[in-house]
Amino acid sequence: MTIDHPTLKQLVMDIFAAAGSHHHEAERIAHYLVEANLVEHDSHGVIQVPRYIERLRAGEISCNQTVEIVTENEVLTVLDGQLGFGQVIGEEAMRIALDKCAKFGLALVALRNSGHLGRIGDWAEMAAREGMISIHFVNTSGGGILVAPYGGTERRLSADPIAAGVPVPGGPPIILDISTCTIAEGKIRVAANQGATVPEGSILDGQGRPTIDPQAFYASPKGAILPLGGHKGFALGVIVEVLAGALSGGSCSRPGTKVVSNNMLTIVIDPARLRARRDFDGDVADFTTWVKSAATATPDGEILMPGEPEHRSKVKRLRDGIPLDETTWSQLQAVAGSLRIPAR
Ligand SMILES: NC(=O)c1ccc[n+]([C@@H]2O[C@H](COP(=O)([O-])OP(=O)(O)OC[C@H]3O[C@@H](n4cnc5c(N)ncnc54)[C@H](O)[C@@H]3O)[C@@H](O)[C@H]2O)c1
Question: What angle do CA 80, 52, 129 make, to 5 degrees?
């Protein structure tokens, strides 16, 4: 089925409002989840709604929280997200980072104990809209252990995404937004819901054998995701765990907790404090032109900058609607029904 984004957003808003969120929070959760569907990161879209509601009912996250400042000076801030919804907590953390960066040219915010922060590229896009460069490192303290270390077969690390954004005047920003493992867990769930397979070389089953069956990942014993590019992705993941987890105080991946809390280290830079803005923008534009001038691997191929695929998907899905598989739709209907929201 295909659904238009305002209808989907309204359904998600109604669900979170009925679950206890104030209007602002319900709107922000719906906005970011539907935005992930619009940019074709369905793994971080409305497929997350049933899990967010489960976590709320289990008391793992709470409605209507705000960030608490643990410690701060002009450029450094440590925040506690108090296990509130990441869509609100992440936005508040970014607001603090961007306001400080506007004043001082640089800001570092270490956020701990946030609910799921969703698509981390959202935070890089928020900074880019205000003309700032940003870098984000995100881990999960313990409930999201998914990834085997290089050379291992058991889960020890979280998906440990890294995002970064560069503003581009008059065009979509350059957005890096990747987990440091071969495939984001949400994409395994999407494949499971669609009855599809996952790419070869991305996951192991519970016996440590390579598999393309997403169900084998969720079976008992559970499988593991492999690090991106072998030892390189593993090394990146280790650094993300330390920067996001140990430095923020939210902790690295560790056994003994089921709570899925995200920690995020964000660095925001105002390029205009380092050199003339037009010179910086000119360098980025020249570099982009140079990169795109490379011969393509196939005759009809095209070179896209990071962030362009998402921008194109958004234009298309705003126009044509968001494709949703039947399993995800019926899961949404079931959650809505459990909150006495009339079926759509
Ligand atoms: N909150 C969390 O704990 C958490 C954990 C893991 C992942 N995530 C999110 O999951 C999402 C998916 O992660 P992923 O690792 O599957 O990402 P991915 O493999 O889909 O890669 C996305 C990145 O690659 C770029 N890209 C894709 N195709 C391209 C092309 N043809 N040319 C140029 N650039 C291209 C995109 O612009 C983007 O920067 C991300 O949004 C990430 O933030 C969140």
Answer: 60
Residue with CA closest to ligand 1 atom 21: 178
Q: Which ligand 1 atom is the nearest neighbour of the CA of 118?
A: 1
Residues at CB less than 6 angstroms from ligand 1: 41, 43-44, 116-121, 138, 140, 159, 161, 163, 175-179, 184, 187, 262, 304, 306-307, 309-310
pLDDT above 80 for 21: yes
Which helix (DSSP H) or strand (DSSP E) does residue 316 occupy? Answer: helix 308-320
Nearest CA to ligand 1 atom 17: 178
What per-residue confidence (pLDDT) applies to 46?
A: 97
What type of residue is 322? I
Residues in the chain: 344
Using the predicted structure, report yes or no on whether residue 194 has a pLDDT greater than 90: no
The atom of ligand 1 lying closest to the CA of 185 is: 6
> In three state form, how does the secondary structure of 243-294 look?
HHHHCCCCCCCCCCCCCCCEEEEEEEECHHHCCCHHHHHHHHHHHHHHHHCC
Q: Answer for the pair 216, 223: CB distance below 8 angstroms, yes or no.
A: yes
pLDDT at 344: 76
What is d(CA 39, CA 317) in angstroms, rounded to the nearest whole number? 8
User: Looking at residue 43, what DSSP letter applies?
Assistant: G
Cα–Cα distance, 215 to 316 (Å, whole number): 31
Q: What is the pLDDT of residue 106?
A: 98
Nearest to 179 by CA among 125, 241, 255: 241
